[in-house]
Amino acid sequence: MKLKYITLFTITLFLALSSHNAFGVNSINWTLGGSPLNSLPFPTVTPSSGNLLQNPISVLVDATDENNFTTNGIIDTIDVLVSSVGYPDVITYTLTETGINTGLFTGTNFVFLVDNNKFQTTDTVDVIINSDPERGCYPDDTITQLDSTSVGAGDGVLIFSNTDLGGVGLVLTETGENTCKFIGKLKFTTTDSTDEITGTLKVSPGDILTVFDPIIFSFTNAQIIPTVDGKGSIQSNTDDNQNTAEVSAIYNGLSAGLHMADDPGGSGSGGPINRPGLVLNFLGSLLGGSSQSVPPTLGLDENQRRIVDGGFSFNHNSVDVEQFYTHYPLITTPVGQNNTIKLKIYEDKGINNIAHVGLSYGLGKGETFNEGRATIEYDKTFDGKESVTLFDPKHVLGGVNVTSTITNCSTNNNAQCLEVTFDHIFREPLEYNMIATNIWNFERNGWQNYFNNGIQIVGESMNPPEKYSGIYRGHPFHLTESGKNTAIDGDGNNWTFDKIWNRDYIKPVNVDSDILNPEKISAIEQLGFKYSDGQEIFGYARMDHRFEDTKNQEQVEAQTIMDNLCPGCQKEPFEKINDIFSYNMPTRHSKLNNPETVNQMNHEDQKAREFLKQYFEKIYPGKIYD
User: Fold this and answer.
1) Can you tell me the distance from the alpha carbon of 207 to that of 163, in angstroms, rounded to the nearest whole number?
2) What are the pLDDT digits (tens) for 64-87?
3) Can you identify the CATH homologous superfamily of domain 312-458?
4) Contact 450, 326 (CB under 8 A)
5) Which of 453, 429, 446, 454 has the alpha carbon at shortest distance from 358?
6) What are the tens digits of pLDDT across the range 318-335?
7) Is the pTM of this model over 0.85?
8) Residue ranges covered by each domain of the chain
9) Interatomic CA distance for residues 535 and 40, integer angstroms
10) Would you give the DSSP letter of residue 550?
């Protein structure tokens, strides 16, 4: 890759400015084997420089003018920032004072990486060589090996570490007849000895690794993470222009740059030392090398070590996922807005071993994945065919779209994750807020995670009211949902749902025989009432909550009428109580003493009885007796 970054004029100006000493720091330099690299405009190194089989590269900072370092009687440390053009990450490289009060700081090793070759001690790495005839790879219809063990032909690779400079030789096996692609597995141990039979190299945290290819005499650098003081690495690019610095070290305003050039050809190979045919591919046995199948994870491995950062996110609000329940602060989203959930999934046998990813919404306390109100499920077959299944009986979701891609699991390791993205809207609010995921691999080894408080959907539903049909006391009814647990039928009756739909209590009508007079029934209906509207005719029982509402309303109306009739009655005390007068009531004559009235009453009574008999015979034929 040819990169053009800055002009010589700019570099010269930068160096002139950075030479100013404002912090008690005299100089900062890159070193090779302990000696400063001072060539101008920038010292030149290659990606293989500083490997364990050659002189180490480091940084030297002269801070002898800083009194805190030269008088405090201790060995201090300082942090140098190392950056690389084309890569966003800035590396902190910790240097240690060479002795008490010397004011000189340096490290042990700093190397440059062609790829992001940083591994944990629990990782397994595929060492891959894409070979050619110079290794004797011809179409011979056989599967061959490259063997650099102590009993091999020495045509494979050797890997060294700071902890074991004797290294380990690997056996690389061709992936198939005439493929010329060879793969071997490299493992690490921090307790046992290096074992070439299993391809295991003894390492310590922060160790620099060197992969040596004796056939073309090439070196490739790597590092064990987490890093330690004095050891560091950074991924870098190369450039033909010697007037550019691809890697820079900065401390307290002073900077030292390095020009990264391509490696020269190897011994007799005619190719670059860091040849592209060698690949260190992270496999991800982040489970202590166990062959036991473990489920995919959004956060922690089976040993409770974090492997995925930000494994769950909703609308860019990410969280590190715990083993089972993960606290997720309640997030509110409105009905109709597009939402995005992203899941980063790690699978120890590779992302192609992930078979199923499920997402479930609206779980209540104590409920499990399958009890969610709406579920989206993403599936992938052995041959890579993808499908999406939606379980959404209440039409809660809309505009569902699911995509997947490959991403890094974390900045602290080289693991690869499958990132599955769910895009959709919510069409209506949910009663509960908890979210669950259900993920398994092709061995049907799965795991569920739950996120609470979860997501709250607010706003009016975009869906029409639900309708229900049923039979109540032998009659069909059609209900329209009017609330969370309420509905109304075609006659205006209210219903409440409590495991089943029940019609709300209706006060029975106490039939007065006089009201059954056809003329009076007609008069009532002329007023706009149906005869069945007992509550409009007779009112409500005292225990009915509507009785109190009606009473209060009529009390207000009566008060208004009283105020109109006598505005002062409610404001002035009644002072003339002694002026009350009385009069004699007129003589009362009872009509019951009149024989004609009594006869008329008896006649009307007989008519009413006959009417009732005829009326009920129409309603209950054959069931009315004298």
Assistant:
1) 7
2) 888 888 899 999 999 999 999 988
3) Immunoglobulins (2.60.40.10)
4) yes
5) 446
6) 999 998 899 999 999 999
7) no
8) 23-113+227-262, 122-204, 312-458, 464-530
9) 102
10) H
